[in-house]
Amino acid sequence: MVPTLPPLVLYTSIVALVIYCLLNLRTLLFNRHSSHNPLPPGPKPWPIIGNLPHLGTIPHHSLAAMAQTYGPLMHLRLGFVHVVVACSADVAAQFLKTHDSKFSNRPPNSGAKHVAYNYQDLVFAPYGPRWRMLRKICAVHLFSAKALDDFRHVRQEEVGVLVRGLAGAGEKAAPLGQFLNVCATNALGRVMLGKRVFSYGTSAGAGDPKADEFKDMVVELMTLAGVFNFGDFIPALEPLDLQGVAKKMKKLHARFDSFLNQILEEHQISGSHGGDAGNSNNVDLLSTLLSLKDVVDSEGGKLNDTEIKALLLNLFTAGTDTTSSTVEWAIAEVLRNPKVLAQARKELDSVIGPDQDGLEVENLNMDEAYGLTLQRAVPLMVHPSPRLAQQVYDA
Ligand code: HEM
Question: Would you give the DSSP letter of residue 3?
């Protein structure tokens, strides 16, 4: 949960002020601005806490309002961290397309340290040979057109299970979010591990208590990643962990690590090489990763167990709740809008026909459905998220 800003800001500012003054008196007095790079305009920062109070309780609203005054490229100082905000599509494209390679690192943060195996994953690895190796593995084995085609039947079968589970609920309310999450996690599990993560109970996976626990873990990770951790912005506060964020992250990491160790052990014992993939060309991602442990790549890199677990962690957390929440949100929006619902029904009837007895989901051409095509494209795109340009902050 994001804490209410003003009282916390006051409390942290006092502690930070004392510690910072003690540790950095000389710099504070004599070296007020060490950066030689000109910065874009922005609101005047407060001492120590910088522009944190300007963010308010709804930061994206506050940023949009500030952009009206300072323009689409703004500078803020959040605690001790200089941040440049792109507030228009054109300016964002400059960072994410034109100068992408210069802004491809991510700022240091407690989540990367405590949860993502101390930056040994793909999401937080600094740009360099290891990031390129992990990214290439994903591009070839998960996201390439060939990989998507090879595993098409997996997605179709899992959607089939989902649809049958929903139909089986009849008139009773079905836990749609849970069903969708199980569907996304099992489809990803079959591509990554060669097997489903959750077994099926009476309905589409909702019977497996592991499913609840896994979703809880992913949601907790998302929640913790969204907490504004003062230690990330005011270095003197980091060791104090005033909000208890680092403590919670370490606990969550231990849960994920035990889940991933179990997966690795089971996979090594069963020696799965993609039997679930249904095609001898298809090898599950984990088998590929394990085989790469002994191979030196073209840039001299070799995978170890920690990097493998970190990558699985990334993919399971990046690819499950994101996908299922997006579909859940889209369905909720359709239900709220009777005209769109009627149009969707009409389109479905024109493809499936009004008589749905004997419907085999596997036989439908899912590629014709716009939503599913979009889902497939999402992981290939570059989305906006904090980026770090090393040379800007070197001073
Ligand atoms: C609706 C679904 C999804 C949404 C909204 C979403 C959103 C995002 C966003 C905002 C980023 C940050 C991009 C950046 O900073 O450049 C990202 C990165 C990433 N996503 Fe997704 N994603 C989705 C589905 C998936 C799926 C299905 C997978 C994998 C199976 C996936 C794997 C990743 C990975 C590995 C990264 C990190 C890439 C890197 O740092 O090099 N995502 N995603």
Answer: P
